[in-house]
Design brief:
The protein is mainly α and 89 residues long. Helices cover 78% and strands 0% of the residues. The chain is elongated and about 45 Å long.
């Protein structure tokens, strides 16, 4: 597997799981967009591996701190609420 694809797939899984947890319906749009982005970054990595890994890392950080899809709270916000209260919503 290419270096950037694991990062993209991790971000997609985090975003999809967060959206699924909050809305109780599977976010097919996030899954499809993540798959397409993974294929695109695989192509970019053939041109420049550091560029692809850097962009993938930016994607992962953005997904962690920003609510994506129909989710009202970001994954880091959900984690902070879990640590603060000790229980999930």
């Amino acid at each position: 597997m290419a270096a950037s694809t694991g990062i993209i797939l991790s971000g997609t899984a985090i975003s999809a799981a967060n959206d699924w947890y909050q809305t109780k319906e599977f976010p097919w749009g996030i899954a499809v967009a993540g798959s397409l982005l993974t294929m695109f970054m695989f192509g970019v990595e053939k041109l420049s591996e550091p560029l692809a890994v850097g962009l993938s890392s930016i994607f992962l950080i953005t997904v962690i701190v920003t609510p994506i899809g129909k989710a009202k709270e970001s994954p880091i916000g959900e984690l902070a609420a879990l640590v603060k209260t000790g229980k999930l919503k």
